[in-house]
Amino acid sequence: MAAQDIPGSGQQVKSPTQRTTAVPLDERRRMRHESRTSQTYKAFLKYLCDVGKIPNEQAAENAAISILCVLEQRLVGEEDNDLEAQLPMKLRELMVRCDRHESGPPPKKFGRAEMLAMVAEDLDMEPDDTEPIIRAVFSAIQAQISTGESDDIAGELPPDIRDLWARPA
């Protein structure tokens, strides 16, 4: 609705539905996007803390980074790109090979024992203690992607890791 002229005054009155703000529209959109991204990420970390029984958000983030890095190393072909495309922006940033693995060997096939050992080394834990955390991260990831993509990832994993993926926390 447009502003209306006040007869004889040369002034205009804004309609009550018109918004006045000093912040440009593009900037407001960017701010809303960042807020949604932050809320999604905070909910992801809270879920990991609650379900994975992780003590705090920093530990949850470290676990997510480690597990996503290991998962990225295990997925071959374009499946890691397909997964990444469905993740919210802040989680996409985690879906890269970590600094420690970036210069390492290319993706390779490994099983459950190796996955548990890799995550345990990253998180300075015992391998047997990492399983609930891996399941929690897998569950949180699956909540962010389509069923079809989840099935595609399961198809790329060996049966022993597929069990971790298929039976999340």
UniProtKB/TrEMBL annotation:
InterPro entries: DUF2267, DUF2267_sf. It comes from the Bacteria. Transmembrane segments: none annotated. Residues 1-36 are annotated as: Disordered. Residues 9-21 have a biased composition (Polar residues). This is DUF2267 domain-containing protein. It comes from Corallococcus interemptor.
